[in-house]
């Protein structure tokens, strides 16, 4: 008996064993008899050709060996949503009951364990209480009978449908339209078709707050076509979708607070300007997006941009940013509080990670968290004072002056150090004595090996640390706040030396370097708070 082939098989997703594929052809393949399915595998290593067989092209593949022909009886076209839910959350056959298989369900915030439910009414009652459903990798391909989901699972709010056999956005809508209070939906890892023209707005997603569409091959243009149906959406995850160009959202996505575009190779940093006016966007994740520069052309040195008005948290790690000017630009963001910027070429310009951190802190005035580490007030003060000193001679050489009437630093200096004038206003211009004999940042300072102890906290084990002798006490304190995870209280530092026979010397001037106190290798720094 011939295997059944769905009437809409073309374009459908299927499983063959454990391999995922998309149907690209249904029909005969002479000289063989019977019906064949021409499939394009998700894993091109699984295929044999590009859809051409014996000189005839039956279908096309992206990869020259991404295609095969399989018989319909080898194809699993999947199950409806409710069948998958029942398979995962209830006991469907006698075998499970006989063996007393235990299952765990989450009802709201309660976890309930049950063994072998013997009545359909009890199963129905349990399903009706489900709030959070995961049917990941359950071969879900269609919605099933109309209204059956809403009758059976009336309380669902969160659905994980990732890595299934969903072939189109219409199927997702058909499922969601039966879930009245749907708040969270994850349909990542489903290669599906999205609308290519604007469609009538469905109420299916009217309460949806969180949507994950990672690895679905959606384009930004398709996002914007679907977005009118997401009036309450707050978080949108779009990683690994080959999105290269963006367009300005027009009256859509206005409620969005978080957008994740990681692992999409954007054409350039200017693409960001097209999404810069989302009024409520607080978090933007741009890991590995290929951007090499960031620029906000609407604002000059020391001014705030009108772009990204609500943006508090930005992640730009694993990109190609090579110039400090892009870090300077981030100070223009009016609400920025947290930055992740690991693994960018600009980070290689300074070998000492501590100095690198200080530079970024000094350049971005409102930053409170850098690379997931909190910036406490003493660390910021130390970073800003140091910055003001380090570049003091450059400021003088560029036309800076202690006399306000003569203080006219060049455009080039202000472009490289846009915060310098505000740091001078905050702390005063650097004094001449501070700038004498200042070593350039790139010179290797003598490193001191010191033991750090907390005499009033015996649980804290001594730590050995190598510090440059030119490091100011302020910067040492900033380092210790993070190293010892001390709450934001004022630190008191002193040191003991074998030469001083038990006498403690207070490190009482935050602006002085370690070498000022004649600290030597092997000395012990005592930390109290």
Automatic annotation (TrEMBL):
Metal-binding among the record's keywords? no
Which InterPro entries would you find in this protein's record?
CAP-Gly_dom_sf (IPR036859), CAP-Gly_domain (IPR000938), LRR_dom_sf (IPR032675), Ubiquitin-like_dom (IPR000626), Ubiquitin-like_domsf (IPR029071), Ubl_TBCE (IPR044079)
Q: Which CDD domains match?
A: Ubl_TBCE
Asked if Repressor is a keyword of the record, the answer is no
The record's listing under SUPFAM superfamilies reads: Cap-Gly domain, L domain-like, Ubiquitin-like
* A single cellular component GO annotation: cytoskeleton
The alphabetized UniProt keywords are: Acetylation, Chaperone, Cytoplasm, Cytoskeleton, Leucine-rich repeat, Phosphoprotein, Repeat
Domain CAP-Gly residue range list: 27-71
Q: Which domain of life is it from?
A: Eukaryota
Which PROSITE patterns does the record cross-reference, listed alphabetically?
A: CAP_GLY_1, CAP_GLY_2, UBIQUITIN_2
Which Pfam families does the entry link to?
A: CAP_GLY, LRR_9, Ubiquitin_2
Compartmental location:
Cytoplasm, Cytoskeleton
* UniProt subunit comment: Supercomplex made of cofactors A to E. Cofactors A and D function by capturing and stabilizing tubulin in a quasi-native conformation. Cofactor E binds to the cofactor D-tubulin complex; interaction with cofactor C then causes the release of tubulin polypeptides that are committed to the native state. Cofactors B and E can form a heterodimer which binds to alpha-tubulin and enhances their ability to dissociate tubulin heterodimers. Interacts with TBCD.
| Family recorded in the similarity comment | Belongs to the TBCE family.
Question: What function does this protein fulfil?
Answer: Tubulin-folding protein; involved in the second step of the tubulin folding pathway and in the regulation of tubulin heterodimer dissociation. Required for correct organization of microtubule cytoskeleton and mitotic splindle, and maintenance of the neuronal microtubule network.
What's the protein name? Tubulin-specific chaperone E
* Species for this entry: Cepphus grylle (Black guillemot)
